[in-house]
Amino acid sequence: MPVDSPPRIVEFAFDNQVDMTEVAGTLELSRIAARSLYGPESLALHVRCTVDPRRHHATIDVSSKVGRAVAAMFLGYCRQEFGVSALRVVACGIPIVPASALASMQRREDQ
Questions:
Q1: Between the CA of residue 44 and those of 21, 55, 58, 89, 106, what are the distances in Å?
Q2: Confidence bin at 93 (pLDDT 50/70/90)
Q3: Quick check: is 67 in a domain?
Q4: What span, in angstroms and rounded, lies between the C-alpha atoms of 46 and 41?
């Protein structure tokens, strides 16, 4: 990965009923798991993440493989802990939708 690659942010938006202290703990658990896989140096160099309790959001920079691993683990843990319907995932400012829906949207734009 080039050092100057721009950040690619994935945002996790949580329902207001979700305790953001628990979200922060789940994110830390994901970071611990990634540290076990990639080492503390890679984690320190490549993982940028935030939790915003007021907005009920968390963000993870997924421009590195370590960041993508943290995001994947975090998503899995959150779905298990809070439920699939308790969060929404947005990548780079664009809501993540199934590929079939993207293809359908593209066909409509081409017409």
A1: 22, 25, 18, 24, 39
A2: low
A3: yes
A4: 8
CB count, 10 Å around CB of 46? 19
CA dihedral 104, 87, 31, 92 (to 10 degrees): 40
Q: At 32, give phi and psi (nearest 5°).
A: -65, -45
CB contact at 8 A, 68 and 37 = no
pTM listed for this prediction: 0.77
Phi and psi, residue 50, nearest 5° = -140, 160
Each residue's pLDDT tens digit, 8-40: 889 999 999 999 999 999 999 999 999 999 999
In a domain, 22, yes or no: yes
Would the pLDDT of 51 be above 70?
A: yes
* Spatial contact of 51 and 23, defined as CB atoms under 8 Å apart: yes
Domain region containing 81: 9-110
In this structure, is residue 3 part of a structural domain? no
